[in-house]
Amino acid sequence: MKFPEGFLWGGAVAANQCEGAYNEDGKGLDIQDVMPKGVLTGPTKEPTPDNLKLTGIDFYHRYKEDIKLFAEMGFKVFRTSIAWSRIFPNGDDAEPNEKGLQFYDDLFAECHKYGIEPLVTISHYETPLHLAEQYNGWVNHDLIGFYERYVRTIFNRYKGKVKYWLTFNEINSVLRQPLLSGGILTPREELSLSDLYQACHHEFVASALATKLAHEIMPDAKVGRMILALPIYPLTPAPDDVLAVMEANHFNDFFGDMHVRGRYPGYMKRYFREQGITVNMTAEEEKLLAENTVDFVSFSYYSSLCEGRKGKESESANLMGGKDNPYLKKSEWGWTIDPQGLRYVLNRYYDRWQKPLFIVENGLGAKDVLVDDGKGGKTVEDDYRIEFLHDHLVQLGEAIKDGVPVMGYTTWGCIDLVSASTAQMSKRYGFIYVDRNDDGTGSLARYPKKSFYWYQKVIASNGAALDE
Ligand code: BG6
C-alpha cells in the first residue's frame, strides 16, 4: 500500500488536554479549568486540585522534548489548538496577551525546525470561562465579535507560519455537549432548542468570517471545518430504521452542509418549522455564509453507531449517543471499534461534499502498562493500539483506492494526555507514554511505546509497511 505523495502523516492534541500551565504567563481561565470530571459532572465554581488539566502533561514547558520525539517518528504535520484564553484571557479583552502569542510563536518555530507543518484548531473545547459566565457562550451574538478579534490577531501574527486552520473542533458536538463545545453554561435539559440552534448559527457565522479573514490575510492558507464523524447503520432493513438513520445523519451532515454549501438545508428548515425553533439571522450573515465556504473537510473518527426503533441505547461515554451494534467489539471505554466505518465515512463525505478530506483524529483510548524495555529503559507493549491503527489505515488506503482525495491523517493524542470526556490520564492514546496517573502522581517522564516505532516505519515507507 502506498499513500499519495506528500501525504500529511502526523498526530494531534489540544491545548487544554496537554499544555497545563493553566494560570501562567497571563493565561485566563477557560471552561476546562472548571471541568475536573470532563462531561461526567457539572462544572465547579473555580479550579480544583483534582482537575488533571491544570497541569496536563506539562507540554507548555516540555514541548521541545515532545516535538523532537514527533520528529523522530517522522511527523509531517502536528495538530494542536491555540488556547483562546492565553491570547485573550477573558475572551472580550481589547488587547491580546503578548506572552501567550509568544508561546505559540516558539511552538510553531520548533515544529518548523523539524519540517513539521502545524495544523491549528482555533477553538477546541476551551472557550474562555468569562465568555461562558458573562455571555452564556455561543448563545450570545457578541461571541462572533470576540472570536473575530481573536482570529484576526492570530492570523496576523502567525501568517507564514501556519498554513492549515480548523475553525471549531467537532462543531456538531454542541448539540449534546453545549458547555464543552459551545461554552454554554445553561444545562442541556434547560436549554431551549431555539437557543441551541442560535448558538450553532453564531458558530457558523464566526466560522465563515474566519474563513474570509484567513483568505484575505493569508492567501496560501487552507481552512477546514471539523466534525465528529459518526457512520450510522440501520439496526434492521425495516424502512423505518433506514429513515431513522437518514434523520440521525441529518443532525451531523447539517454542520458539514453549512460549512461546505453555505446555506440552511431543507431538512433543517423543516425541523425548525415543526419544532417551533426560531433562529435569528440577517441577510448579511446569510451572504457571508454562502460566500465563504471551506477549502477542505476534516473530521475525527473513533466509532460508529446504530439507529432504529429497537435496540439498546449505548452506555458508552461516547459524546454522541446512539444504539449498540451487535457485530462490533468495543474499547475498554465502550466505544465500538469499526475500521471499515472509516472507509465508509470517507466515501460518504466525498460523495456529498466533493472536497479534499483530512482525518484529524483517530485512535484507541486504552489502559497501558509500563514495562522494562530490556535496555535499561521503559516502554509499553501496545500491540492492541498497533492493531487498531493498522486496521484503520488499511481502510483509509481502500478509500484512497476508491478515489477519495485524502490530505492527511493525524492520530489523536499522539502523546498521552488528559481525556476530554472523562478527564482521566489512564485513557491513553499516545505513541509516547507519559508518567502521570489519575490521582495526579507521576514524574511526567516520557517513554516511547512499541507503537512509536511501528508508526515511524509506516511513515518512513509512506504506508507500504502496512502490508507487512
Ligand atoms: C474528540 C475530541 O471528541 O475525541 C478530543 O476532539 C478528545 O478532544 C477525543 O480527547 C477523544 O475523546 P476522549 O474523551 O477519549 O478524550
What does this structure look like?
With about 475 residues, the chain is α/β, with parallel strands linked by helices. About 40% of the residues lie in helices and about 15% in strands. It has 14 helices and 14 strands. The chain has helices at about 15-20, 60-75, 85, 100-115, 130-135, 140-160, 180, 195-215, 240-260, 265-275, 285-290, 340-355, 385-400, 450-460, and strands at about 10, 75-80, 115-120, 165, 220-230, 230-235, 295-300, 305, 355-360, 370, 380, 405-410, 430-435, 445-450. The chain has an eight-stranded parallel barrel, surrounded by four helices. Strands 6-8 form a two-stranded parallel ribbon. A hairpin with a 5-residue loop joins β10 (about 370) and β11. α6 (about 140-160) runs parallel beside α8 (about 195-215). The termini are close together. The mean pLDDT is about 95. 6-O-phosphono-beta-D-glucopyranose binds near residues 169, 365, 419 and 422. The site of 6-O-phosphono-beta-D-glucopyranose has 16 residues, from loops.
